[in-house]
Amino acid sequence: MNEITVLGSHRVVPVVVLDDVRQADPLGAALVAGGLPVAEVTFRSPDAAAVLRRLADRGDLVVGAGTVLTTEQVDLAHRSGAGFVVSPGLSVAVVERCRELDLPVLPGVSTASEIMQALDLGLDLVKFFPAEPSGGLPAIKALAAAFRQVRFLPTGGITADSAVDYLAHPAVAAVGGSWMVPPDLLAAGRWDEVSALCAATVGVPAG
What we know:
alpha/beta
């Protein structure tokens, strides 16, 4: 399985923390209107699985589950319609369960040893996390020189400005971030502003 194909042409993945399932539909509409129909819904809130399901059921978004730590959460993500799974670290059990369910998985790594473990598991696309605290783009450049077959999805501390530099590196498949879905705008239901931030991210007009 080539995990990157699930993201299609999207090179920026909004990382969403949403506490109210009733906001899922307007959020999905805002992402689509802004030209960024993809989301990683983190399992950091009680309603995360319900939010994921609502977004997945729209049919016009690529939606994955993030902050997946256990095989039980993998099963929950799968039942909720996740198209992919993202984990902050590398768990063999999580990877193997995703493989059993034919569910693309991007485990988190930040060291050469973790990358070698990912390669042993047959993975050549990994999440680089936490990106900025782990050395940022210079660290990715160093790791990419040693592991030329590996591509990275850096997440953690990335901004709209720094994303440009990350995406310019050939080893970076995509970046994840929350600058276009900031919690204060989601909580306030300021969906036009979310759409505008998404549009600015992908360089298309909103709406």
